[in-house]
Amino acid sequence: MDYVLGIDIGGTNLVVGAVSRDGQSVIGLHSEPTGAVHGANHVIERILGMARSTIAETQAALPSGRVIGVGIGSPGPLDTKRGVVILTPNLGWTDMPVRDRIAEALELPASLDNDANCAMAGEWWVGAARGARHAVTFTLGTGIGGGIVVDGRLLHGASDVAAEVGHMTIETNGRRCGCGNDGCLEAYASGPAIARRTIEALQAGAESSLPMIVHGDLQQLTAQTVYGAAAAGDPLALEVVQDTAKYLGVGVANLINILNPEVVVICGGVTKAGDRLFTPLKREVNRRAFKPAVQACRIVPGELPGTAGVIGAAKVFLDTHA
Amino acid sequence: MDYVLGIDIGGTNLVVGAVSRDGQSVIGLHSEPTGAVHGANHVIERILGMARSTIAETQAALPSGRVIGVGIGSPGPLDTKRGVVILTPNLGWTDMPVRDRIAEALELPASLDNDANCAMAGEWWVGAARGARHAVTFTLGTGIGGGIVVDGRLLHGASDVAAEVGHMTIETNGRRCGCGNDGCLEAYASGPAIARRTIEALQAGAESSLPMIVHGDLQQLTAQTVYGAAAAGDPLALEVVQDTAKYLGVGVANLINILNPEVVVICGGVTKAGDRLFTPLKREVNRRAFKPAVQACRIVPGELPGTAGVIGAAKVFLDTHA
To answer: Which of A58, A127, A149, A301 is most exposed by smallest CB count within 10 Å?
Structure first.
């Protein structure tokens, strides 16, 4: 069978794998730290090294298989037509022609799309949103990315920046976000925002096992720590998880009222919290969104943790080059 | 030339006209109070009377023209496929098969869509959004309706309730909205919300010419009164207009970040305020939305005041029956 190399470029990790043409299998999956501190070119070289390893492994495992192209997902803003990443401070890239640099080095055709769009494409192709005509993903991590499928097509918008769901205002005069705006969803429900809200509550005197867990160094607190403590029954951590679910519920309800999708997929490590996240999130959505829109919509965790971006990048390649 | 009868059903007024096949002219335009207090059937009878007058006038003015069908726009929720309005308290309708009742009485094929979708279709066909591949309208009145065009098609979503932009939460713990949710855009920037915010400020002691204008009866205050007083320089009215523009700016910025459209069209009487509305609205959008999305997007008043709904209803008929 033919394969497409999927490359998922993140500020923290790079993930590369060979995705079968039907999306059902991934071979030679590799994940490495991005190492952006070593410079823009270093990141490209590291990607190329991983890509060559994956291609070699795929050819060893399936001598009759061919790698026919490369799908690349990257943080944006970017220009899908020119294949250029315009500006990603996390990667140290400015106007980086990442698509053509990788295509030329590997001598394969390549595509470029936003990382959150790729996650949507993956979940829509073979994951939690498969078969949906209208779908939305929220990808929760350092930031909150989004992907939107409308009438069976990935939405790019007029200038390739659609689906920035993390920067929807949910509190007009709310918390300052990294983007400079006030009250973005991301300022409440991203990983760092969860840690920040927890630290503020501790500094205000809340009782919790969390300071002990991080040996008194609150700056070591992460969303993972908080979710772990919530699983162990820590009352402050449980409250933070509940509040996070509420904020996410506002964002999800807004997208449901605006787009009336059949499915909203929540991706990212935060979904490991399971019902502790999804029960209050759905309660908030029920309270806020229009009933005929809520009734038409499933809210589910992603089914491709760790590989949605790689699989979706390959899908974008197939859709643009098939 | 062939004509399509456009019918725009509102809680306050009914508007009917014959729209030429190219959307360039409207003949026999009539507007009458809806008269919903007289009952559900009365509204249908009134629509039929207006429709027959318009058809007669069109045939008198253009003996060679044919009326080929009827496009109907109505408040929702509704089912476009079955042609049924599910529930509109303002009209006293429950499961009203308005499309087939009108089609049978006039012996013409008919279509039904949401009134705000029809306004979008009109502005997109021959108004302020013509030619756009991605567009959004906000229709400001008693409520705030919306319409969305994605990739050159009107968005209906999974169950015909997409584009409820007025019920997007902009303040998580904000003002109670008529829909039961807290902090909807509509609870801040609809006509009644503008009046309510003004009355609250007056009751809190704000200086203004407004009480004199309504002879001391604050319940007579409307958004129109406030906009009129702002035009005359009343400081409280100016502040209310400015705040309204800010709230609308939050809603518009959210839609720009989510959909990345080429144009956002603001419809409704409120646009008569001109720069007093649009200057602070655009300032708020610039502050909040992503620069590459803001740069790609025009924010403009509707070009079809009073007829967008009629023209768009005709367009929906042509798109579904042509």
So the answer is: A301
What residues in A contact B80, CB-CB < 8 Å? none
What average pLDDT does the structure give for chain B? 95
Identify from B84, B137, B156, B254 which residue to disrupt to test chain A contact, counting A C-beta atoms within 10 A and taking the largest count: B254
Domains contained in chain A, CATH given: 2-124+306-321 (3.30.420.40), 130-301 (3.30.420.40)
Which distant-in-sequence residues (6+ apart) come within 8 Å of A47 by Cβ?
A: A7, A9, A14, A16, A102
For residue A2, give the DSSP letter.
E
A274-318 pLDDT, tens per residue? Answer: 999 999 999 999 999 999 999 999 999 999 999 999 999 999 999
DSSP A233-255: T-HHHHHHHHHHHHHHHHHHHHH
CA atoms within 13 A on the CB side of B146: 26
Three-state DSSP at A115 gives helix
pLDDT of residue B201: 97
The reply to whether residue A260 touches residue B161, judged by beta carbons under 8 angstroms, is yes
pLDDT at B89 exceeding the cut of 80: no
Element (H, E) at A42: helix A40-61
Q: Cα A317 to chain center, whole Å?
A: 18
The angle, 0 to 180 degrees and rounded to 10, between the axes of the packed helices A235-259 and A191-203 is: 140
Q: What is the DSSP letter of A175?
A: P
* Three-state secondary structure call for residue A27: strand
Please give the interface size between A and B, counted as residue pairs whose CB atoms are below 8 Å apart.
162
Could you report the per-residue pLDDT of B69-88, keeping only the tens digit for each? 999 999 988 999 999 999 88
ipTM: 0.94
